[in-house]
Hints:
By secondary structure, the chain is of the alpha/beta class. The protein contains nine helices and ten strands. The protein has helices at about 55-70, 95-110, 135-150, 185-195, 215, 245-250, 260-280, 295-300, 320, and strands at about 50, 85-90, 120, 155-165, 165, 170-175, 180-185, 200-205, 220-225, 285-290.
Amino acid sequence: MRIAFAILAAVAALAAAPASAQYKAPAHEADWPGMVSGPDGIDGLDPGPELQRGRSAKAMLADSRKLNVALGALQPQRKALVDAYVVSVALDSDPVFGREAREAGKVLSRRFDAAGRTIVLAGSTGTMPSELPGGSLTSLTLALARIAEVMDKQQDVLVLYTTSHGAKVGIAYHDGDEGYGILSPKRLEELLDELGIKNRVLILSACYSGIFVGPLSSPDTALFTAASSDRPSFGCQADNDWTFFGDAMINHGLRKSQPLEAASDQARMLIGEWEGAAQVNPSNPQVSIGADVQAWLAPLEARMPKTDTPPVGRPATDALKRGG
């Protein structure tokens, strides 16, 4: 089950993925730090607080250089085409999210003809340090800002995939014992509005991610969440290759030459079957597709690959057989 993070309270240590003798992926061992104020411990969450605690200066510089390379490599939009710009971000260092974000970046880039216009931000897959810029609230913000510079905001489309743990206040950023934060619905809404990114596919994989539906829905937005606002989602064990939602939506639905809404329908059907087999409370994935989405989605889907690709990695349901 996805773990809802308790803000300003101790966070249970999460299991790390099996690692080689040479490398161990960052694990969550320290308590969640106090980041906000107020009698209820939640004042200040809407702006999206972020805290780095004890991170090496050399590591910060190295990550900044990787991010600058990725941002600099983004290709400009093509005037004759509706272009998609893909961001796939793992906001938690548990290796399941690093693995999922990487493969999601490949699937979304292929489906939306976004080669050269895709950025993946993610930590380790569990076997070695990450070769990619890390997933954090800052790196996500800078990636979106750079995309806003190079895209045609009247014509082009942002495709954003986030994968992490979640709470009823937002998506959690949690990098080992060094990075903490919350991406709240209000923060994401204000960020996209500030940058003028109005055409968007938002695919949000986290517990309680349905809280984003109200603030982020718009005539030009196609929004898909792993769960409703009051339900957890499943499959986030650190040694998994996929969460339930990522496996169903990305690894199955979006690999097929079918419309976006049909991919979502297939994903929700699969998730329902898997959750039924696991005898867990349904996560109730949410969908909101704006009235004007088809204007930019139709030309993108006209260029969609005509051949399907097979799922990769261990199915998320394998965790049930392992007792996870």
